Amino acid sequence: MTPLAFDTTALREPLDAATAHSEAEKRVREIAGENGRSALVARIVVRFIVLVVGFGLLASLFALVVQMIFGGSGANVYTWLIAAVMVIPLAVSQIRTELRTRRDEEERWYRLARFAASNSLSYEAFRENPDLPASLFRRGGARAIRDGLASGAVGGFQVANYGYERMSARTRMQHTACFVAFDAPSGLPPMTLITRLGDVWGQPAVPPPTQREQPIDVEFDKHVTVSCEPQDEAAVREALTAPVRDALLQLASSCDIEVIGGRVYIIARRELALTDTAFWRWVEDLAVLVGSVLVRSASVDDATRTGWEERSKERAALFAAPPSGRAFVIGCLIPAVFGIVAAALTAQLA
């Protein structure tokens, strides 16, 4: 495999907001039809109204209970005023989140379309129900690729974020992942590598029923579970030499790996920032891993290994956990405290 080298200028150049907006509107019409944007806005508005009204009713009930605890005889005009004030932060945050999401989407589409053009890649902003063999693509509903880029060359790679939904206790949960796929080196047997160092909230890969767990090395097995079919055990052990294991832990310790259907799928258990230049340097390194290390089952040269080590911090930042929900908790506590104090003070007022 020819080493990959990406031109990331398009990911760093200044954004033309007006052009990004007009291109996004055109892309939405291509994806969802002429009335796609109107339908999308209508769904957002309905969801917003349902959320705010529902929270408002709960807030009014909360205020009423506090008023009655402090001697009130029932609801009064202040009950509804308190509920309305408690709802305002939620309404404002929902509006800001929606606007920020739309701006981020426009910028992402703008930059990735130009990045794809400058690197002779195809770009697909959205594709429902992708027909791919890895276990990631056989689970849940509302399955869709977001921001898919691929090389048209023989043995080319594919990169995309991916989303799907699963039911949990009658609640529809949204899950995301990011995958990088390459053609598998000749002779590499099917196998599934499930990391113990991935995102704990993400969904791990699922080996096919015909595969069974195969111990490889005591230290490696502490971090990765390897599964393969019984007839491939010797070939898998031969492929996963010490240099290969070291490279896998260095470059893809947070990812599951599936070798299936003649492809190698390296899967992060959550969405990654495809507009981050660090992501594409990581893809370049993965190409060396698949096209050189796995082929020869040998160590890379010193210059390549030094480059991997130098980029270890930016890889760690790429896979870093999202910010904690402390701000969200504080944002919820402030309206609650206000509601308690206001309801107590107005409990006996007419």
Detailed description of the structure:
The protein is an alpha+beta fold. Helices cover 50% and strands 19% of the residues. The protein is built from eleven helices and nine strands. It has a nine-stranded antiparallel sheet with strand order 1-2-3-4-9-8-5-7-6. Strand 2 and strand 3 (158-168) form a beta hairpin. Helix 2 crosses helix 4 and helix 4 packs antiparallel against helix 11 (326-345). The longest helix has 42 residues, at 77-118. It starts with 8 loop residues before the first helix and ends in a 5-residue tail after the last helix.
Secondary-structure blueprint:
Layout: H1 9-12, H2 17-32, H3 36-69, H4 77-118, E1 121-128, E2 141-151, E3 158-168, E4 171-183, E5 191-195, E6 212-213, H5 218-221, E7 224-228, H6 233-239, H7 242-252, E8 255-260, E9 263-268, H8 277-296, H9 302-310, H10 312-318, H11 326-345
Antiparallel strand pairs: 1-2, 2-3, 3-4, 4-9, 5-7, 5-8, 6-7, 8-9
